[in-house]
Amino acid sequence: MQVGALFPQTEIGPDAGAVRAYGQGVQELGFRHVMAYEHVLGADPAVHENWQGLYDVRSAFHEPMVLFGYLAGITTLEMVSAIVILPQRQTALVAKQAAEVDLLTGGHFRLGVGLGWNAVEYEALGQDFSTRGRRIEEQVELLRRLWTEPSLTFEGTYDRVTGAGLAPLPVQRPIPVWFGAWSPPAYRRAGRLADGWFPDVPPGPKLEEAKAMVERAAVEAGRDPAHLGMEGRVAWTGDAEALAGQARRWREAGATHLAVDTMKAGLTGADEHLAALAVAAETLGLREN
Length: 289
Description:
Blueprint: E1 2-6, H1 16-28, E2 33-36, H2 64-72, E3 78-85, H3 91-104, E4 109-114, H4 119-124, H5 132-148, E5 152-155, E6 160-164, E7 177-181, H6 184-193, E8 196-199, H7 205-220, E9 229-235, H8 240-252, E10 257-261, H9 269-284
Parallel strand pairs: 1-2, 1-10, 2-3, 3-4, 4-7, 7-8, 8-9, 9-10
Antiparallel strand pairs: 5-6
Helix pairs in contact: 1-9, 2-3, 3-5, 6-7, 8-9
């Protein structure tokens, strides 16, 4: 089981030096990848009455693709977006950015995608929130063609490409696409289309139910579910024993990857997050692997 760290988007701050220290520190501790998720814009609760979103206009987020390009120059970590909200972005531009990250990391990149929940963000980016489920399926098909064909013509419901292609192409052809999944439709979509998935439920009966849906959808699509990756997430609470127990449950559940999440643990700045990750790394025996 490959272990990485979740980039503490809202808590690391805007200083480039902190971002550099975090990336290099994560690698020195023995983690294999760094994961980041996104929000391009935050909604202002003063304008959007009764706002119930997890994040708002005060929540700071580094843009993942640019972040990964920076970290690729100072580490050899695998970069993982978990997730980029694909339907609110232009497909061809995502393909180009992902190909560049893949090249800069020497083929160590996974593109995690999902639908998102923020209609305000979709509006600002000029995309239709109501069609995001249908659009993401078409986008994944187009992404894979753009990463593997020097020139192509594609006529879809949401995207059109006429005799065009990317140059240079990525190292991985195609780049692995992983899906964030938190509902039955998302589980089925992951089974049919993804190379791997990020469950939004912990190990236990709900995860087993979700896995069954993913695997059933894969079989129905003529795919081998054994080839699908699964990445779990363990939260740092200051209790190393609890962390070890969470990791063990994910391993027993069949996770191929694991990310340690230090966000929302009362930590601030790169140093405090790295100190927590140092304990996690020792607990999980990362330097021994």
